[in-house]
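Review form for a predicted model. The reviewer records the input and the model, then writes brief findings.
Reviewer: anonymous (R2)
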Amino acid sequence: MISSNSKKTSEFYQFGVFQLDATEHRLWREAKPIQLTPKQFDLLFYFVEHAGRVAKKDELLNAVWADTFVEETTLARNISRLRQLLGDGADGEPIIETVPKLGYRFTAEVTRPDENLLIIEEQTLQYTRAEETLTISDEEIFDIQTRKPEEIVQLERQIPASSRIVSSWILLLSLSILAVIGSGLLIYQIFFTNKGTKAVVVSNVAPLTMGTGFEDTPAFSPDGKYIAYSWNGGKGGEYGEKSIYIKAVKTGESRQLTTNEANEHYPIFSKDGLHIAFIRGQYGTPGELIIVPFIGGTERRIARLFSGNYSISFSPDGEHIAFIDTEDSTENGQYAVYLVDIKTGERRRVTAPAEFEGETTPRFSPDGKKLAFIRLAPTNDKQRLDNQDMFVVPVEGGKPKQITFDKSTINSLTWNGDGDQIYFVSPRGGNDLRVWSVPSTGGEPAIISTVAKDVRNLAVSPDGKKLAFSERNRQRFIWESPSNGEPAKKLIESSTTQFYPQFSPDDSKIAYYSDFGEAGDSFSRDLIQIWLADADGRNPRQITNEKYSAREPQFSPDGKQIVFEVEIDNRLAAYTISTDGTSLRQISPKDWQADSPMWSPNGEFIFFISNQSGEKNIWKIKSDGNGEAIQITKDAAYRFFPTPDGKFLYYIKEKFLNQFRQNKQFPEHLWRVPTAGGIEEPLPEFSAAGFFGFFTTTPTGIYFLSNNPLKLKLYDFADGKIKDAPGNYQIPWDIDIEFIFKDNISVNKNALLCTVSKHTSRIMIADLP
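Model under review:
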């Protein structure tokens, strides 16, 4: 079906560098289009029409969401997005101002040019593939629009989104050429140009597996009839022990292939489909490359690998397996791409030594002549894993060709059936891990819309018609474990995820940070804000409303202020705010990195982590932000707490954080240093206590979570001994250790607060157009 229409615009508004067309629901910044969801546009239009006055929250909710019930978090989420898109006004103040306890004010001056000065005539060609429909969310459409403004995807919604099963696809491509004549006074031109690959929407998206727990790392058989994958049997989270399973793509139950108690993952099929190779070993520790018959039977070890956590790839001729390792298969050396002969076990390095941090995820092209892989660029911060790009190298060796230039996280990659495109998973400067496609010779990536928001570990069937991937789901909530032995329970009922709970000094309130996404979605950094609630979890209220993320709140000793970190352009700064949401100010020095801010017990100083000296150490500054910052530690620190008397800081060495990230083993020591600086010394009592990401100081001692079994322990200041914490705390068993160094605990005489994460993954399958 091809249709044509012509429209004229009369409802036109100007504010700052923006132009808003109310009739066509369109917004421009200096003649460049900005894509908004319908509700975001309605909200902005209401602000524009009522510029200069305070609009109360209830008023905005009734005006924009009159036909449905939504929480205030929905309003806050959309305002945060508008602030991000609009930026600040000419005076540096936000265009949408928060008026505490009242609502919001649109501060920009709005004008309406004479409609005779501007006439927009738009010719639209609409191509519709008949009888094909797709259910997809507004957010998914919006994501495609923001990535490719020239490709406006409009989709019919005929199947409930909750089913997440896509029957087929519609792609509507609108190409607009706009010429404006305004008596020589005003001319606007908007060009939508085609750059790179078109966006693709997959169809018939459906779960292949329905087990509980963590199903991951799918791989197709050569005939495309089976998928091998790893599964933990519903126990142990992402790092639990997995086995290899096989399932037919069309029908039938899953069949367990391996029964070894060790962790097994990343299965791949041999060329003839008669064998499956996989990695056996815990993530990040030395592992083995194993091969086993498809029907089960005797295993054979092909090679011993140091980097047991990285995926592998079978050559199309069935003779070699590509993997990641070091030169002598120890932790000494550079991670690089190697090939191993499956018959002889001989190894050959494919990529030459060069200036890079490491390589991962090798994938043979369908013709077997090339290998695609991910390379991590050199970085001073060894903990950063987001400085990655994709390369392609001939199997025989040579100079790799760089394919992407995003310097972003790349989780997975695979070739399409023809070998002219490479699919990969990356946030590409955003927050959610999505699927992208890029020509194998290089070019502009295009999104592959799968509906899923946290995608991992791609696989494409040999005929290129089907895509398999793992979809992850995380739900994180604040749980309370009473000291009287009552069962632990979720403290705050909300659709948002919650992190970093902290009791106020008088135990009447808790502070935490939360995002605005639906439960289970990966959170959006620009929407994370600080919240307060009563100690029983009631009356949650948001106290920050910034266009940047706000995290890790800590109460001042008098309970009247909160210090927290704000992420601005990949840099963290320390801010304080009153608990009523007023008196916001930056405390850390301008342009410094300031992570994990913490009050001194007397409120005089604020401590924080900064790399200003070249590595991460603890610094302090006056809590009013005046004066020079003073360095406390000299030998790298990560997480810390001051003692109640203010004399010492207890902290974790950064090298122990590195140890955890390398082999998922827990740090061995807690250290202390005088708050005035001086000798840094370990506390030998903590040589095997574990779980120091979860610790906090109280007047009586240091509370921390120990593992094996999971219990709350106390380092008693009175006698210097470690003992079970007084009381009977029933710790939730499913604390997700993946976030052990990204959250904390808070303890008082009545309860323990912690973040509990339910982390699952399932295999999805879809049709590629």
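Findings: The first strand starts at residue 2 and ends at 3.
Further findings: Residues 72-86 form the longest helix (15 residues).
Recommendation: see findings above.
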